[in-house]
Amino acid sequence: MTPAVKRPEPIQSVLKGIGRIAQGVECPEGLTASGDMAEVVGASEIVLMVIPTPFVAATVAPLAELLRPDQILVSCTKGILNDTLETPNEVCALPLNTEPDHNQP
Question: Structurally, how many domains does the chain consist of?
């Protein structure tokens, strides 16, 4: 698993120190961080998006261009946008060319 992040260096240091923070917890050997979203998405079957609500639109727009039809996007973002009152599903719908699923929690 390789998370795509804007600045991978801080994540790499967290990954190295996780054992000191959570005793007995070890990160998988191959867990790394990358600043290259295209590389990470291209190598993934499932894309897990875990970001604050205000950054959903800016993240989903480039992500929509990278996703293949066989990939699954899982958004773990909660809340609403303060200025428009849109949910993360609604924000994702337009760039992903989908209908928001209002039946999801």
Answer: 2
Would you tell me how many other CB atoms lie within 10 Å of the CB of residue 92? 23
Q: Does the model's pTM come out above 0.90?
A: no
Integer CA distances (angstroms), 74 to 48, 53, 65, 88, 96, in order:
5, 14, 16, 11, 12
The residue written with tokens 């727009």 in the block is 61
Residue 54 corresponds to which amino acid?
A: P
CATH of the domain at 92: 3.40.50.720
Cα gap 10→27, rounded to integer Å: 15
Instruction: Judge whether residue 103 has pLDDT over 60.
Output: no
Residue 70 has a pLDDT of 92
Domain that holds residue 9: 1-35
